[in-house]
Write a structure and sequence with these properties.
Strand order of the largest sheet: 16-13-15-14-18-19-17-20
CATH architecture of one domain: 2-Layer Sandwich
Strand content: 25-35%
CATH class of one domain: Alpha Beta
Helix content: 25-40%
Distance between the termini: 30 Å
Largest sheet: 8 strands, antiparallel
CATH topology of one domain: Alpha-Beta Plaits
Number of helices: 12
Length: about 400
């Protein structure tokens, strides 16, 4: 029996028969060939930050940490190819040294670039899509052992699928990112009332490069957070002096360091439905869960995209994340708020807690069948389709 694997929060623990970290694509292809011959499953894993069971397997867990780390520039100065197993924090430093930066990041940077994009990790800002929208090319080993390159010049029609694939189409080994020059941001935060925050939310979102807010159920107050280019501050701000101010390179300023571990449910809501959805979430939390909820609720925005399994596919999106300390029970709380999210056409974050299966998910994604057909073509023997992934992707 192998050693136990656990995710970042500790809520997901399992013992795969084998954990491997192939050093190159040849070793990875050999793993795929063995899996096909022995009818076993392979599941790629990143840093294990996800709360969901996407990577759980009884068979072989495949880490990308053994792949060579590199940043390869292209003739286009704002394209770079990187190792799929590169942690976002380390990748940010490597890109910074090369004079490059991603246009947006999520709230934490411990994930690998492949894991973050495969699950739809996102930051905030009306103009910015999730991290997958920055992917210009993907190289992966499919379920047949083929090495497949997908980019603007080759297999371009597959880009909307491979940019965010849940690891269901193959093991990604390299990614090409569309980048920009380095930039510095000023992060500021204010404490405010929930009434003022909701009344001025659209104005705050429009006038700031990045803006989100936390709502604190115990006090019914908010923390408003903004990020702007250091020479481009909006005239409109919350009242009073900022609670905190910090300025630095984007890759060091956008993510936050987290000491405490937590579990999370997050749904992506059509932006026009946000106020009604949030009002009902707030009502239920205050009336039913206030004494047991120790953490805050995070509200962010994500721009519309055309990625088949993206939670922002075809619509401007506002996300609501309910967070609970990992030492406290979360099931009753998460189940209750999930019912509200579903009433408002919400799509669950792939890497966080939710209860949906393929039966419910199919109706939320217009390109669902196209993704299913491609998955069957690239992985005809279901090498990557573990029971947990099958519940998400296959109607049974």
């Amino acid at each position: 029996m192998g050693r136990q694997w656990r995710n970042w929060s500790g809520s997901l623990r399992f013992t795969p028969r084998e954990q491997v970290a192939p050093a190159d694509e040849d070793a990875l292809r050999a793993l795929v060939d063995r899996a096909r011959r022995t009818s076993t499953k392979l599941r790629p894993v990143g840093a294990g930050h996800s709360s969901s069971a996407l990577v759980r397997t009884d068979d072989v867990l495949v880490s990308l940490t053994g792949l060579e780390r590199s940043v390869r520039r292209h003739e286009d100065p704002y394209l770079a190819t990187v190792s799929a197993g590169e942690p976002l924090g380390e990748l940010g430093e490597a890109l910074y040294e090369a004079g490059l930066a991603m246009d947006n990041l999520g709230d934490v940077d411990v994930q690998t670039i492949a894991g973050a994009t495969a699950t739809g990790t996102h930051g905030t800002g009306l103009r910015f899509g999730n991290l997958s929208t920055q992917v210009a090319g993907v190289r992966l080993v499919t379920g047949t052992g083929e090495v497949l390159d997908v980019c603007a010049e080759r297999n371009a029609s597959l880009l909307p699928a491979v940019r965010l694939s849940l690891g269901a189409l193959g093991v990604v080994t390299r990614m090409t990112l569309r980048l920009g020059p380095t930039y510095h941001l000023r992060r500021r935060s204010w404490c405010s009332s929930i009434a003022w925050t909701l009344e001025h939310l659209h104005q705050l979102q429009r006038q700031n490069r990045n803006m989100d807010f936390y709502w604190y159920p115990r006090t019914d107050t908010t923390q408003i957070r903004t990020l702007n280019l250091r020479d481009d501050e909006p005239a409109f701000t919350p009242a009073g002096e900022p609670r905190t101010t910090e300025t630095g390179p984007s890759h060091r300023t956008i993510p936050r360091h987290r000491e405490l571990r937590f579990d999370e449910i997050e749904y992506a809501i059509p932006s026009e439905a946000f106020h009604a959805c949030f009002a009902e979430i707030r009502r239920r939390v205050l009336n039913r869960h206030r004494t047991g909820v120790a953490w805050r609720i995070l509200v962010r925005t994500v721009a519309e995209d055309d990625i088949w399994l993206s939670t922002a596919y075809g619509r401007a999106t506002t996300t609501i994340a309910c967070i609970q300390n990992n030492s406290l029970p979360h099931r009753e709380y998460f189940d209750d708020v999930e019912a509200v999210f579903r009433q408002h056409d919400g799509r669950p974050h792939w890497g966080k807690k939710h209860s949906l299966t393929a039966r419910e998910l199919r109706g939320l994604y217009p390109q669902w069948q196209r993704f299913a057909d491609l998955r069957s073509r690239l992985d005809p023997d279901d090498v990557f389709l573990t029971p947990d992934l099958a519940r998400l992707l296959r109607d049974e």
